[in-house]
Amino acid sequence: xxxxxxxxxxxxxxxxxxxxxxxxxxxxxxxxxxxxxxxxxxxxxxxxxxxxxxxxxxxxxxxxxxxxxxxxxxxxxxxxxxxxxxxxxxxxxxxxxxxxxxxxxxxxxxxxxxxxxxxxxxxx
Length: 124
Hints:
Elements: E1 25-29, E2 40-47, E3 55-61, E4 64-70, E5 74-87, E6 93-96, E7 100-103, E8 107-123
Antiparallel strand pairs: 1-2, 2-3, 3-8, 4-8, 5-6, 5-7, 5-8
């Protein structure tokens, strides 16, 4: 759990060189994997002071496929890699380095990660 109380977080949090940041927390196999072997994921997670459950950070996945429900609205900016997201409703999108994507809350679909994929994310 991320502590979101304002007295424990600085008002400015800086993640330098996010595309190369090396200290991601290993989180193991992605939940709901549909590929074998399952993708392995890691993250750097930061709370946003005084914004409840909102948070931001860096997330990375190795190649593979998995089902995903994006429960909160999410904005991502791809730092490296390529992936395709196939939503339950709407056209699939292929994303790569430099792309930004905005997901509505409760978006469901399947991620197909083609090469190690790193994103900066903000959950709202």
